[in-house]
Amino acid sequence: MRIDLHTHTKFSDGTDSPHELMLKAAQAQLDVVGIADHDTIMGWDEAAKSVNKTGVSLVRGMEISSSYDGHDVHVLGVLFNPADPKIQLHINTMKGSRQRRAQLIVERLSVDFPISWHNVLEAAGNSTSIGRPHIADALVAQGVVKDRNEAFAQILHTSSPYYVPQIAPTTVEAIAMINNAGGKAILAHPKAVKRGFSLSDAAIEEFAQAGLFGIEIDHRDNPPAQRPELIELAKRLGLARFGASDYHGAGKPNTLGEGLTAAAVFAAAIEGTYLEVLYP
Q: For residue 119, is it within any domain?
């Protein structure tokens, strides 16, 4: 089986509609795809309607923003109860928080670069979760940088004077929220040094003790040289090994299916969850 559980649609910072994503998943010969937009589940229903049309099974998820030691940490929650009160509170809180943060960043940027909030809204299109990727797209459109990667490596880097920290639950709180809602929690790209922060082994061990189910290892943002160490760490902590593309459409070079999750890990991840996988 070809299983890719980490993708994004236009409802956060991807460029494809959920239906387009499902069609592309079929073209990429994926058996299972997971939609995990940032702090929103708005794409679930449209994707669900495309399951029978495309023949691709769907895992409904969300990439939850969290904070650890002052840094942004992303946790995938899959197959949780979307009506859970704490899940709903997080979605509603983060929608406002993400937008306020983005506006503050744009205010800082506008002093030195030709960018306005209107430019960001144009770049975001129909997205319901506006954030730094849309600011990056606006910077590209204004000719300030060539692509998102350059924007995040320089102007939008966590060490940049334009950076504004995210207000979010702690990573331990995010894990608990997912578990209490009947889902499984997966740590996204823990060694993504290009994003400005790499989680220590001690931090990952803390998350494992808090109920983390697995970690993304086969992900392009984890340097290949560090993956053997991550594999050993996962074994020691009893964490499942995941692979994922983190596909965003035209926004990033990531391609569907470039990182895959083993069928046995997938079977364990969907066992006992509140939601079921949607099969054709």
A: yes
- Highest-confidence range of 184-193, 194-203, 235-244, by mean pLDDT? 235-244
pLDDT value for 193: 65
Q: Could you give phi then psi for residue 215, rounded to 5 degrees?
A: -135, 145
Q: Which helix (H) or strand (E) holds 5?
A: strand 3-7
Which amino acid is residue 218, in one-letter code?
A: D
Contacts of 111 by beta carbon, 8 Å cutoff, 6+ apart = none
Q: How many domains does one find in the chain?
A: 1
pLDDT value, residue 118: 96
Total-model pTM: 0.89
The residue range of the domain holding 139 is 99-155
**Cα gap 21→229, rounded to integer Å:** 33
When the pLDDT of each residue in the chain is averaged and rounded to a whole number, the result is 95
Q: Is residue 110 part of a domain?
A: yes
DSSP conformation class of 85? H
String of DSSP letters for 149-205: HHHHHTTTSTTSTT-------BHHHHHHHHHHTT-EEEE--TT-GGGT----HHHHH
Q: Are 132 and 138 in contact (CB under 8 A)?
A: no
